[in-house]
Amino acid sequence: MRTQATGYGLIYIVDEMLKHNGKELAGKTILVSGSGNVAIYAAEKAMELGGKVVALSDSNGYIYDKDGIKLDIVKEIKEVKRGRIKEYTDAVPSAVYTEGKGIWTIPCDIALPCATQNELNLEDAKTLLANGCFAVAEGANMPSTLEATELFLEKKILFMPGKAANAGGVATSGLEQSQNSLRMSWSFEEVDEKLHKIMVDIFAKAADAAERYGVSGNYVAGANIAGFEKVVDA
Predict the structure, then answer these.
(1) Is the alpha carbon torsion for 120, 12, 190, 180 positive or negative?
(2) Which end of the chain is more exposed for a tag (fewer CB within 10 A), N or C?
(3) What is the H or E stretch that residue 99 is in?
(4) pLDDT tens digits, residue range 205-231?
C-alpha cells in the first residue's frame, strides 16, 4: 500500500484533528491540490469517510466539479493515460477547468495542499479564510509559505504541518522494513490498520506537546517539540 500511504495517512490525521476539536470530516467540502499519488489517494480516503472533494489540479491548471470529483476518471487520466487534468472536462462536461493557479479561490471547509513547495501563499491563505475554510493540512513538503502558516496560526484555524501530516509514506516504508526483518508479509488491510494507528499516534503526540508547552492547538509547535523530544530521548 506504499502508493496510497501518504494520501491515506494525511486523511487519517486530519480526521483525528477534527474529532479532537469537536468536528467531523463527513459532509465537508474539500479542496486537494495536485493529482499525483498523494492527492489522488487523499481524495479517495476523504470520500470514503464522507467528505466531498470538489477540486484537483496539476501544473497547468485546476478542475472544479461542484458535484464531487469522479476519482475513477482522474485515475484513468493520470495513472493510465498519463494525461493532463483538463481532460477531466471531456468526460464530465459539467466540470470547469481553469488554466493557471487559483484552486484556493474555491470556497471550502478543508484545504489539502498536496502538490509542491510554496504553492499556498499569504494571499491564498487570506482567500481561504475569507471563504470559510477552517482546516488546512499539508500533504506535500512545505506547501504553505511561512507567511501563510503564520496567518493560519494567528487565526487559530486547524493547521497540521507536513512534517506530521505527510508522514504516512515514511511510516509505511518503516513497515516494509519491519516485514523484511520479520520475513513476514502483511495484507493491505493490516498495513492500512497499522498506518491509521501511527497517524493517530502522531496527532496525539503533537497535540500533547503543544498542550504541555502552553500553546494548545498549535500543531506546528507541537510537531516540532514532539519531534525534538523524540531525538533527545533517543
Answers:
(1) positive
(2) C
(3) strand 96-99
(4) 999 999 999 999 999 999 999 999 999
